[in-house]
Amino acid sequence: MEIIDSHCHLDDFFHEGKIEEVLTNAAHALVTKMVAVGTQPKDWEFYAEFVRNHGHISYTVGLHPLVAENEKELDQLPIFLEKEIKPVAIGEIGLDYHRLPKEQQAKDEIIEFQKLIFAKQLELAKANDLPVVIHSRQAFDDTFNILIDSGIVGSKILFHCYGYGVSEMEKLKSFGAFVSFAGTLTFRKEQVEPLKVANLDKLLVETDCPYLTPEPHRPKRNEPAFIRDTARFAAKMLDMSENYFCNLTYKNTEKFFALK
Ligand SMILES: [Zn+2]
């Protein structure tokens, strides 16, 4: 019963000397493929090197809305699209309005900046025919509108760590976008209903480790092996066997990222 972790961050484990242990745990849990997701130039650099010796791990490059410091950082993105081992998507990119400053002008500036770097990266993805991994928090309408404007088709869009409601899920479903659920599903009851209405052909699962540890591992740090617990929980909520859920999400993940 193999499974893919469609969204993880591995750089911290590496820098702390724990990567071998974490990858061994993942192998024991039959996490046979992983997508390591970029957030800023230093992890793009790291992943591009790291995947050379780890054939079962793919990577993405993208400037995260909360990590981005300036527009200039985007200049380095196209370099990675020329690498021998290319990123499988642009991401994670998007909008995050969760902790905006109260003061209006400061708030507007941050929103404008996030929108600008988001739109620029979508343009790059479109020009290179790459799928996009979307980080969107408390900003559904803006995210959705910018995506529509980008002209990118729904089947090339993945909303990672799904945290919106049923009506947003319906919108994404009609748009043909993919969605991925993380460990929060195991302890946030409000995520169960959206999961139940998700298009099963567009459904993925992820850890987003080292964050968002699923039950029963909280408050430990999350790692790819723990995707098992989220998969088990999701399968139960969807009234399907764990085996069926793993196969389904495996195929969907391979399809979305065009993994080999
Ligand atoms: Zn992430």
Structure description:
- With 260 residues, the protein is of the alpha/beta class.
- The chain has one domain (3-257): Metal-dependent hydrolases (TIM Barrel, Alpha-Beta Barrel), CATH 3.20.20.
- Helices cover 41% and strands 16% of the residues.
- It has ten helices and eight strands.
- It has helices at 11-15, 19-28, 41-50, 77-80, 104-127, 140-150, 166-175, 192-197, 227-237, 242-257; strands at 3-8, 31-36, 57-61, 89-96, 132-137, 157-159, 178-181, 203-205.
- The chain has an eight-stranded parallel β-sheet.
- Strand 2 (31-36), helix 3 and strand 3 (57-61) form a beta-alpha-beta unit.
- Helix 9 (227-237) crosses helix 10 (242-257).
- The chain is globular and about 45 Å long.
- The structure holds zinc ion.
Mean pLDDT, to the nearest integer, reads 97
CATH topology: TIM Barrel
Strand percentage lies at 15-25%
CATH class: Alpha Beta
Number of helices: 10
Question: What is the first-to-last residue Cα distance?
Answer: 18 Å
pLDDT < 50 runs, ≥5 residues: none
The set of bound ligands, ions and cofactors reads: zinc ion
Number of domains: 1
**CATH superfamily name?**
Metal-dependent hydrolases
Shape: globular
The structural class is alpha/beta
CATH architecture tag: Alpha-Beta Barrel
The count of DSSP E runs of length 2 or more, i.e. the number of strands, is 8
Largest sheet: 8 strands, parallel
Helix content: 40-55%
Strand arrangement in the largest pleated sheet:
1-2-3-4-5-6-7-8
C-alpha Rg, in Å? 17 Å
Q: Give, in order, the helices and strands.
A: EHHEHEHEHEHEHEHEHH
